[in-house]
Amino acid sequence: MYQPPSLRLALGLGDQELEQRLRPAFDAADDLLVVAQCLAAEQVIQAVDSGGVDAVVVAWTLHRLTDAVLDQLERPRIRLVVLVAEPAAERWRTRRGTVLPLDADPATIRQALLAARGSEHIARRPRPSAQPVPLKPVDMPEPGPAPSTIAVIGGAGSPGRTTVALNLVIALGAAAPTVLVELDLDAPSVAAYLDRDPSRNICTLAHAVREDPHAWSAALIDELQPLSPHSPSGMVLCGPPKREMRTSLAPAFVERLIRELARRYRYVVLDIGAELLGVETAAANHRAAIVCAQQLLLVSRSDLVGLWHTRTALGQLESQLGIERAALQLVLNRHDPRHHHSRAEVEWHLGAPVVAVVTADAAATERAIAAQRPLVVDRASRAGRSLLALAEQLHDGKLRLPANGSAEAPAGGRPWWRQPFRQPAAVAPKHHLPTEPQPIRATGRSTSGGRVVW
What we know:
By secondary structure, the protein is an alpha/beta fold. The chain is 33% helix and 17% strand. The chain is globular, with a radius of gyration of 26 Å.
């Protein structure tokens, strides 16, 4: 009896857990032969173009996998299986390949690969011409200044990702249209930092465009909020106010969102959470945002524990997304030269360049948080000056921000997040308190111990 030859299979999973679960089963199958293990979408294209591949299995978590790449993989003689988080979504119904969930078992994937095979020998696919495949209109860049997408990431703990991202957008928004996208799906906090409306967020935007894919412009107008009076051209898209809401987001939506914003803004700054591993919603969306960025700022605390977490994050970015350390830019946050390693020592030990050192300034940071005011506008703050210098380096030019005295109080009375807290009777009303520390006067001292009575 004639036995058809094994299908030559190219794998592009981009996730260690998927590889450990699927690869042994594919290797044990008599009718499948894994000939390529790809770490990025470009390697899958090269494997298919070489003519030595009959079938492809790719996961949406693969580095640089986009709709344009899938269009190039949908060829007549190539069997394509795509593993995604939400296979029932509308966007996958027009795909020629088979779309399966990320948790599909190896037997289901194998059956999908062999379903249309028949009994004929699979002819070797000739190498296609060098003519590039045209992109869809949604993937074509529009004329004008080249946008810059900057992802601010970091390891576990609280290295200061949101602080860095927020203040960069404030500074860049003083010179060019800039938007901050809060994609930290683990612990979003921008609404509390700047007293923004948490009901206008990325999840409500996703719901609006899911109902009408052509409503991006109107939906963005509804959900974007002005960032701060200090940043005339700065806008913000807040993260989900509730943890359970993040399940409404998908990597495909995140990629489309970044493309839409890049058409409208000179700078798109992404505040991305620390979770990168696994197939959970947060990790998948974090990876999708990272691969869309043109610049990666990895924020690290300067102490020993922070550097330990940063080294772990560097290893994850290398192994899971194929990002070389030299392509990353480290930001050492809360750096105190009396206790922490120098810039050169950190570069040598971690193998990644340090683009900025943010000086530790706890007092200014606490004042900024209490006043819900950006740290970068405080010219007396050493940390604020460091962040402004980083923004000027990214902008490649000087940035002018208003002085401390021009800060505006939030409109509408007390901030939304302070409403549940009652003001103690012994404390003067907020508008009577000085906005900056005042020198101690003789009349402000007590007769016992010389301590100040507030």
